[in-house]
């Protein structure tokens, strides 16, 4: 059974943004994409573009909360529902706790259980649950699906998954979940010219939030982010990995509250703490006149090199290195600086290919294939949503006959 001329809506909530896209429910061809940015920070922008990148809407407005932004998107969808009738809604969720990984339908029971795990992702889950609830109320009866960003890492070996802490905390869900799973899954789906089940692959998702994953024989065996998206590489406003003593120092020496420490490590650390901005484009523009910008860029590339080496060691070698994410896809300079000095791993890039933004940027004599693959988490959400909705339609049809 097929829906006719209907669309899958995908939703991706961030700490200060709301992204959404529409895909044809049958072909998964993109129809439009939109976002509301700078929620509860400065004047936000509500922007919608069609499949040809034509601007359909651009409004400047202060959105004082995610609820306000969601209601604005809901209003636009309701006004345009004759032109863009919805078949299903797919949500990206940061995690579903220690035991929920598979894409699943939204139910009242699921929402109740997700609320029980807010303590594991206090900067993400509340907003995501709010979005699910509001869209469930607005589109009652429409199937809604959740896709967990941690699912890709669910089968990591215990040595990579668990912290060396008493097991009582493991029972509370304290473990290394890993994130950017939808991005990694999409990138792997594009590596059709190699046998991924026989290769050792590192995918570097570099953006305002950055992480890497080691994929051996098609499976995630280790990743840089841990219990939260704050761990691993230094990021735009997040600290990345810290000695636990640093957190204890902040709490004890400065009398900082837990909430204040969370705010510091999530929103006021990383590249922003060093150079005053976490925007890599701005940092590169200023690096020859601002030594702090130079310092921030150097740290970012240094840590990226270090993690590539560590993940390659964990796999016992490396066959393919893929750059993705906003920085990974668009900054040839950062790709070059990360790869420089990694010749001992067999990594060598061709400058012309790199600066022309070709897909394959490795040199002909490089033992490791180096590629640049744009990610598309929204398409991955739509794909999972389509598959699950089709499965349930078929099951309902079989019950009826």
The CATH homologous superfamily of the largest domain is termed ATPase, nucleotide binding domain
Q: Within the largest sheet, what's the order of strands?
A: 5-4-3-2-1-6-8-7
**Helix residue percentage:** 25-40%
How many individual helices? 15
Poorly predicted parts: none
The CATH topology of the largest domain is given as Nucleotidyltransferase, domain 5
Number of separate strands: 13
Percent range for β-strand residues: 15-25%
* Secondary-structure element series: EEEEEHEEHHEHHHEEEHHHHHEHHHEH
Average per-residue pLDDT, rounded, comes to: 94
- Which structural category fits the helices and strands? alpha/beta
Topology:
Elements: E1 7-13, E2 18-24, E3 30-37, E4 44-50, E5 55-61, H1 66-79, E6 86-93, E7 104-105, H2 108-115, H3 125-138, E8 144-148, H4 158-161, H5 167-170, H6 181-190, E9 200-205, E10 211-216, E11 219-223, H7 244-253, H8 258-267, H9 270-275, H10 280-286, H11 291-315, E12 320-324, H12 325-330, H13 332-339, H14 351-355, E13 369-372, H15 377-400
Parallel strand pairs: 1-6, 6-8, 9-12, 12-13
Antiparallel strand pairs: 1-2, 2-3, 3-4, 4-5, 7-8, 9-10, 10-11
Helix pairs in contact: 1-3, 6-15, 10-11, 11-13
Describe the protein in words:
This protein is of the alpha/beta class. It has two domains: 149 residues, 2-Layer Sandwich (Nucleotidyltransferase, domain 5); 179 residues, ATPase, nucleotide binding domain (Nucleotidyltransferase, domain 5, 2-Layer Sandwich), CATH 3.30.420. Helix content is 39%, strand content 19%. The strands form two sheets. An eight-stranded mixed beta sheet has the order 5-4-3-2-1-6-8-7, with helices on both faces. The protein has a five-stranded mixed beta sheet with strand order 11-10-9-12-13, sandwiched between helices. The longest helix has 25 residues. It is globular, with a radius of gyration of 21 Å. The relative contact order is 0.11.
